[in-house]
Each structure stands twice: as C-alpha cells, then as structure tokens.
Write a structure and sequence with these properties.
With 81 residues, the chain is mainly α. It has a domain of 34 residues. 38% of the residues lie in helices and 0% in strands. The longest helix is centred in the N-terminal third of the chain and has 19 residues.
Length: 81
C-alpha cells in the first residue's frame, strides 16, 4: 500500500504541475529513461531527443474509456421508447 501511495502522489504532483506550468519540459520531473519509455508506449514511436512539455492536450481516444471518436465507451445505450 505504501508503494501505491507514492505512485498516486507522484501522479497527482505531475498533473498539478502540468496544469500550473504547462510549458515546462517533462525531464524536470522524470528521468530521461522514464519519459522516453512513456512517450514510446503512448505514441508507439521512438521518442524525440528533446523532451516534450509536461502538459499536453489529450487527443481523442487517448483516454482508456474513450473510443477513437472521443465518445465514452462506457456510456449506456439509449433505451427503446
């Protein structure tokens, strides 16, 4: 549970800092290996040499509960009338 708390705190810190200072490069808070792995996993391509900014606008379908159109995948279907 202690590890979960540390991970949750770090995610919260990165989210807060990304909102307060969106132009700051991500390597201020993440090691080079960390941001490159995250970038490669998310984008499915090799990371750039220069670290991207900490904050980025999410693209449609980038959240696990959204499909590629940006609609909620967990939305309940309409009821028949």
């Amino acid at each position: 549970m202690a590890i979960d708390l540390v991970v949750a705190w770090r995610i919260y810190l990165l989210t807060k800092q990304g909102r307060e200072t969106p132009a700051i490069p991500c390597d201020v808070y993440l090691a080079e290996e960390e941001w490159k792995v995250i970038y490669a996993w998310e984008k499915k391509q090799l990371p750039p040499d220069k670290p991207p900014p900490l904050h980025r606008k999410p693209s449609a379908g980038s959240l696990p509960w959204e499909d590629s159109s940006g609609a909620s995948a967990t939305a309940s279907p309409e009821r028949p009338r």
